[in-house]
Amino acid sequence: MSDILILDGARTPFAAWGRGTTGAGAPxxxxxxxxxxxxxxxxxKGALSRAGLKPKDVGYVAFGNMYQDGPHxxxxxxxxxxxxxxxxxxxxxxxxxxxxxxxxxxxSAADAVARGDAAVAAAVGADCPSRIPRGIFVxxxxxxxxxxxxxxxxxxxxxxxxxxxxxxxxxxxxxHERANAGAKARAEEIVATAGLAQDDAPLADPSPERFAAAKxxxxxGTEVMTHANVHxxxxxxxxxxxxxxxxxxxxxxxxxxxxxxxxxxxxxxxxAAVPAVRQALEKARWRISDVDLWEINxxxxxxxxxxxAELGLDAERINVNGGAIALGHPFGATGVRLVHTLLLxxxxxxxxxxxxxISVGGGxxxxxxxxxx
Length: 373
Prior knowledge:
Layout: E1 5-11, E2 15-16, H1 36-51, E3 60-64, H2 77-83, E4 91-95, H3 101-115, E5 120-127, H4 134-137, E6 142-143, E7 148-149, H5 150-160, H6 165-181, H7 183-186, H8 208-212, E8 234-243, E9 254-263, H9 273-284, E10 293-296, H10 301-311, H11 324-327, H12 334-348, E11 353-360, E12 364-372
Parallel strand pairs: 3-4, 3-5, 10-11
Antiparallel strand pairs: 1-8, 1-9, 2-8, 5-8, 6-7, 9-12, 11-12
Helix pairs in contact: 1-2, 3-12, 5-10
């Protein structure tokens, strides 16, 4: 993948979904009237503007959308390209891999460039949970292969490893604190959408008392996972533009070095990112110590803590501007956001190498290695 450049990117703000609340306790739903195609198109238009490209320059769009909802969800990438102003000749496909959807969209776009199918390709991800019927949304988090809620599989692994609620709450609080401290840095990622110019999910006051009072997800004796130490549910979209070196008209943010997709038993979903990271590192010929920064999706605090311990990672290098517990996890957009965040922060700190990784319900893990140039 050494010849695949990541030119630039953009995302919408991540907005608390219509059924939830913002950190201030006010009703969410700032983006609830936009469908996933609208959100993806807004992000793609922002990325094109920042890269100095026109919609006609994009030859292929990989659109990551977890739910493919609504009467037109089946048209996926086609509607994103049309709404972003791309000509009819622009091709694309929709991809889905639950929480890992955005990273799969990235690798799909990279493959299109590598094959020579497009000089410039876009990886776009978006989901609007506000628009998903509850009868579809809620059951989607139960893994039918093991008959358990995916959060429950993570909680059981955490309990077996002695990961306490206090440790999870501490990580969750840290996510909000870092999100608040990193708001200025994150602003570089965001394009205002529907009148919203910043993420609205981080808690303004992430006090220990707030986390201690949070409602348990499960009340069956384990009692360590709460609504406050798992990812927030938000609406949002994100986009990255990829190209060959020959097609790049300006300096790129970085390059895609390697990627990996692995499978583990469904009950060990929380550990799935670990073998994915190891495989991606092996392909890149990197060691853990070679990686400057990490973006590990905070599906659950338990999962991040398990992965960190298993890989031996420095907490100060993980999710330095906050993660999905604070910012939210708009499923299809998350993987794209992780890579964009990573490259911008590496550049900001004059560092070089980064890894983004996601554990996916069902027992899949996705990881990518990127570096600045």
